[in-house]
Structures are given as C-alpha cells and as structure tokens.
C-alpha cells in the first residue's frame, strides 16, 4: 500500500495512534514510504448501537428513528446522532442503513421509507429484511441535504490535536458539497503550522457534490469518488457515467483521483467476483490514480491478499492502457500556447516514449514538476527526486522534503526518492550530478533499470529547465 487512511468515523484517537505506531514500525522495517491520510467524519449520520447486539429488521414492519441516544437500539427503535432528522425528511423519502454503508447485500443493509414524522422521531416502513451487526451503522438519506457543517467541531478538534501531532499528509474531507467547504478547510489547516502543507482531497459522496464538481476540483488537491454513498444517491445506471466524467476532469486538471468500494466481497472471501475484478481494471483504464480499500482492510479477513489482488489487476490494466490516445487528448485539452511547465512536462514524456526510456527522473523541491509529468501518463515510472539538505532518511517523518515525497505516493506512476547531495558543499550543478547517480543506483537496485538503458532526466539548471536523454554505461 501507498497511503494509510485513518477514518475517524470509527475508532478513538488512541486506537488510531496505536495503528500509526504500527505503520511507523512497518515503514522502518521495509524501508518504504507510506503517507498518512486523516478521513473526517463530516456530516455523516449514524445509528448508535450501544449494546452491540445484532438487530433483525423484517420487511413490511415498522421501525422508529429517534435522536434520543440514551435509548438502546432494537428491532423497533434505532437511535441516531442527528437531532434534526425529523425536520430534514418528509413522507416518502428513502433512508438506507448499513454497517460501513451499504455493501449492496440485502441481508446486511436495510432500505427504509419514511412513513410519518412524530415530533423528533421518524417512523419508517422496512422495505427488506436484514440483520444489522456492530456498534455503529451508517445512515444515508437519499438526495436530502443534511444541515450539518462539512467540517464539524469534532473534526476540527481531531485535526488540531491528532492531525497536528502526527503531521498528516492528506485530509480527506468527507461529504464535500461545494468549493467553499474546501476553502474553509484549507483556511483552518493554514492556521495549524505544519499542516499548511497538508493536501486536501474532496470526498464526493452525494448529488450535491457532483453538481458542484467543477468548482470543487479547482479548489481541492485531489478527489475521492466515494461510490458507496454515491451508489445510493445516484441511480445505479448513472454511476459509471459520473465516474468516467469525474476521472477525465481530474486527469486533465492534473489532480489525483481516487476510487473507492471496488472489492467488497473480499471482506469475507479470498477472491473477488469477476465483476469486481473488471471494475478495478476499468477504474485504471478510466484514469484513476489510486484505489481506496475500506472494509476489506479495516475488518476484512484477507487484507494482505486483497491488496495483492488489487495490485495485480491494476498492473495488468496499466499494461493495456492506451497511453498514446490519452497523451493526444491531454495535449488537445491543454491547447496552445502552453505554459512553461506544461511544455517541459509533456516534452519529457514525449521524449521518453520516442527513445523507449526505462524511466523518467525529475528533480523537484515541491513535487509539482513531477506531478505534471505524471499527468501525461507516461508508460514508464517517474522517479521524483526530492533533494534534502538535512540528514533525512526514507522513513524520517520530520525531515525536509518528506511531506512532498509522501504526498507524491498517491499519484499514478510517480515514485518518490528522498536524496542528499554527497557533498553538502558542492555547487548546484555538481550536486545534481551526484543525486542523479543516487537516482540511477536506486533504479538499478529496484530492478527498473539495467545497463545500456536510456533515461530521460528533467531538471532545473540555474534559471533554465532542461530535458535530457542519457544512456547508462556498464
């Protein structure tokens, strides 16, 4: 895996801290970078099951949703964490409830129809028989705006304490509904010192987010298509259209796109269904940068096998990705005259394809140039070399450049390398030469480079940006 997501809809800060300590031990042991993403709860509605007993709901029966969280959940009464539910819904509205929202299984998720509102309670008719298990169930009201802040006070408290302490790389902003949500979150992060560097990924989970998608994309650093909720808010036959359109827009904007809910069946099974395997491949072919696994790795029986399987499917899909067609589309979309950086990035990719280079090496301080090269989806890896001046190691979470290195892990085809000039007193050009040797040595050790291979190098020398082709000697 490349990024560890800490979902604060579930679990205490202490639980997530223990997980993070395990992550740090793993990165030290494997000598691999792994980014940290804090996922906010946002305006997520939940059913509270204090007794944690299984709750059976029978089709055509009645169940009451109440804001009184002191009540115990039962087959007749379900306490919810939102006092305004009765004011938000009307007779005939559809409500979905399930653990880790809606797996699609008729036996673990339930579909309710609002029958009437009694004071603060909502009386619903049960449309399918199901058994709910666990301490929390997600509740979703289809196409109804819930008047709760996107970044709640509880979210702010977690970010300013846990997030600041652990210098999170990404913030996943749940239920992003408009561009202003992202602006408010960025303003909040800017006041928290180190978190001013944290990238914000807007999580699109409902029709409102899709309606304002273009404006949200302009403000966010990346997009997460949360298909669990989207699959409920949007007619099933429309989901693929929204996915393709959203991924295309992200690709053309050069912003990372993440797709969720791909192999739900692997939560309990060793192999995905054929439909799920095809879905993962199509996400790659549509332009997704990353696949986000949830229940499969949070409470699933086969987390390692799940990641391995998804990686293999992604790898096969990348082999048949039509890079030539994509490159032409991207060039047409950008148009002329190009910006200086767009011209350099596209030229580097074009040169690498023409000479059949094995790798593209990009020297960068912010990671922007390397991300721009990756935007053009080169068929070979892009090594983003971030030169540090501190005594940094690949697993040092506080060293200069570590933020930029970890944040590039979510971008397709981009592989970061933290490196130091071998002689701190060397001039700029000589330092670049020494780091180039570090980069090519790293490529050789990783197995992506061998003697006589060609390499495209993108670097800045003085005020000039240079793309050059080198051939490795013996």
TrEMBL record:
Signal peptide start and end residues:
none
Q: Where is the Pyruvate kinase C-terminal domain?
A: 342-461
Q: What is its EC number?
A: 2.7.1.40
Required co-factors: K(+)
- Identify the enzyme class: transferase
Domain spans labelled Pyruvate kinase barrel? 1-307
The reactions it catalyses are:
pyruvate + ATP = phosphoenolpyruvate + ADP + H(+)
User: What UniProt keywords are attached to this protein's entry?
Assistant: ATP-binding, Glycolysis, Kinase, Magnesium, Metal-binding, Nucleotide-binding, Pyruvate, Transferase
The family annotation for this protein states:
Belongs to the pyruvate kinase family.
Q: What is this protein called?
A: Pyruvate kinase
Q: Which organism is it from?
A: Kalanchoe fedtschenkoi (Lavender scallops)
């Amino acid at each position: 895996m490349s990024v560890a997501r800490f979902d604060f809809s579930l679990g205490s800060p202490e639980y997530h801290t223990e997980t993070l300590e395990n992550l740090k031990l793993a990165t030290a042991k494997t000598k691999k970078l792994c980014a940290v993403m804090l996922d906010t709860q946002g305006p997520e509605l939940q059913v509270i099951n204090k007794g944690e007993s299984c709750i059976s709901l029978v089709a055509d029966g009645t169940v009451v949703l109440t804001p009184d969280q002191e009540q115990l959940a039962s087959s007749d009464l379900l306490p919810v964490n939102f006092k305004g539910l009765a004011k938000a819904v009307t007779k005939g509205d559809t409500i979905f409830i399930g653990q880790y929202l809606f797996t699609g299984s008729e036996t673990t998720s339930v579909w309710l129809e609002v029958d009437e509102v009694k004071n603060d309670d909502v009386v619903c008719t049960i449309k399918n028989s199901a058994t709910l298990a666990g301490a929390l169930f997600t509740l979703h009201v289809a196409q109804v705006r819930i008047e709760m802040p996107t970044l709640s006070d509880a979210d702010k408290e977690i970010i300013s304490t846990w997030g600041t302490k652990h210098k999170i790389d990404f913030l996943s902003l749940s239920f992003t509904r408009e561009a202003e949500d992202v602006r408010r979150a960025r303003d909040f992060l800017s006041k928290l010192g180190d978190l001013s560097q944290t990238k914000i990924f807007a999580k699109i989970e409902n029709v409102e987010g899709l309606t304002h998608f273009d404006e949200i994309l302009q403000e966010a650093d990346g997009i997460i298509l949360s298909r669990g909720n989207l699959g409920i808010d949007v007619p099933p036959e429309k989901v693929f259209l929204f996915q393709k359109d959203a991924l295309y827009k992200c690709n053309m904007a050069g912003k990372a796109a993440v797709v969720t809910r791909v192999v739900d069946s692997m939560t309990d099974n060793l192999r995905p269904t054929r439909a799920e395997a095809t879905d993962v491949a199509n996400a790659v072919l549509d332009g997704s940068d990353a696949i986000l696994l949830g229940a499969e790795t949070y409470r699933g029986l086969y987390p390692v096998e799940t990641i391995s399987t998804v990686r293999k499917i992604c790898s096969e899909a990348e082999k048949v990705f039509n890079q030539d067609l994509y490159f032409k589309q991207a060039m047409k979309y950008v148009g002329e005259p190009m910006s200086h950086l767009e011209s350099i990035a596209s030229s580097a990719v074009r040169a690498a394809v023409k000479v059949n280079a094995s790798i593209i090496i990009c020297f960068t301080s912010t990671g922007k140039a390397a991300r721009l090269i990756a935007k053009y989806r080169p068929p070979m890896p892009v090594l983003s070399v971030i030169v540090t001046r501190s005594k940094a190691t690949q697993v040092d979470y506080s060293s200069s450049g570590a933020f930029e290195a970890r944040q590039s892990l979510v971008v397709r085809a981009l592989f970061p390398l933290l490196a130091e000039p071998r002689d701190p007193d060397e001039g700029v050009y000589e330092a670049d030469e020494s780091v180039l040797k570090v980069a090519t040595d790293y490529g050789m050790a990783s197995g992506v480079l061998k003697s006589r291979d060609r390499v495209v190098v993108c670097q800045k020398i003085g005020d000039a940006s240079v793309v050059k082709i080198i051939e490795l000697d013996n």
